[in-house]
Specification:
209 residues, alpha/beta, Rossmann fold, 8 helices, globular, binds NADP nicotinamide-adenine-dinucleotide phosphate
Length: 209
């Protein structure tokens, strides 16, 4: 598939690099294709193409959003996503590692509001980027779980397939309003690791009987 990435820093690069190595074509979407993070990503993976945002969206099958959350409104509002899938990897993090929208609604629902022409799926947010660079936990029988949420079943199927490619077991948690709870799982992970010193290579598992 052709995959477009708005944001190619820690998170965007980790996902894009892994998916490129699985055979997907990656386009970095940035209106300044000479920006530092674009050049750094291209120096680390020579197969990445870079295009202005709308051109990248027009060419890509699926888009990923991996930008600082509070930049999203200005980035997204001018874009026509042409009903494509937009994977929201961003987290609204506020002061003191709190929910940046005061837990009143999810960041993903805001992203959907700012990008009404996209089918937004929340994914890749419940861990730090360390587990996106390498999701191999082959010392266990269970794969790490990736929890996703979204309103479009078709979009969630696309995201499930790509996320499986990266070695995750995918659990669909339901409609996009579930993203609020995923964002709180993020805060739990972030406080445990970034604040309290737990090892970053720990993941959640899904067991059912
Ligand atoms: N870090 C983690 O472990 C982690 C894990 C899960 C989710 N998240 C979430 O993922 C998002 C990204 O985090 P990160 O750590 O990857 O951040 P980062 O390393 O700072 O990368 C941010 C990226 O967004 C790009 N960007 C900023 N403004 C842009 C614009 N107007 N147009 C296009 N690209 C733009 C930056 O490019 P330039 O600077 O070159 O413009 C850079 O490539 C955040 O919302 C974060 O909360 C983070």
């Amino acid at each position: 598939m052709i995959l477009g990435f708005i944001g190619i820093g820690n998170v965007g690069f980790a996902i894009a690099d892994s998916l490129q190595k699985k055979g997907h074509h990656i386009i970095i979407a940035h209106d300044n294709i000479g920006s530092e993070s674009v050049l750094k990503a291209q120096s680390k993976n020579k197969n990445f193409e870079a295009l202005p945002i709308q051109e990248a969206i027009d060419k890509a099958d699926v888009l990923f959003l991996a930008t600082p959350f509070f930049e999203n409104e200005s980035i997204l509002k001018p874009i026509d996503f042409r009903s494509k899938t937009l994977v929201d990897c961003t987290n609204p993090v506020g002061k003191g590692i709190s929910h940046g929208l005061a837990s009143e609604m999810s960041g993903a629902e805001k992203v959907q509001e700012w990008a009404p022409t996209a089918n937004v799926v929340k994914a890749f947010t419940i861990y730090g980027f360390e587990n996106l660079i390498d999701s191999n936990f082959s010392n266990y029988d269970t794969k790490p779980v990736m929890l996703i949420a979204g309103n479009s079943e078709t979009a969630k199927k696309e995201v499930t397939s790509l996320t499986n490619d990266l070695g995750f077991y995918v659990k669909d948690t339901g409609s996009l309003d579930q993203a609020l709870h995923l964002e709180h799982m993020t805060l739990l992970w972030v406080k445990m690791v970034r604040r309290d010193g737990h090892h970053p290579n720990f993941v959640w598992g899904y067991l059912e009987r």
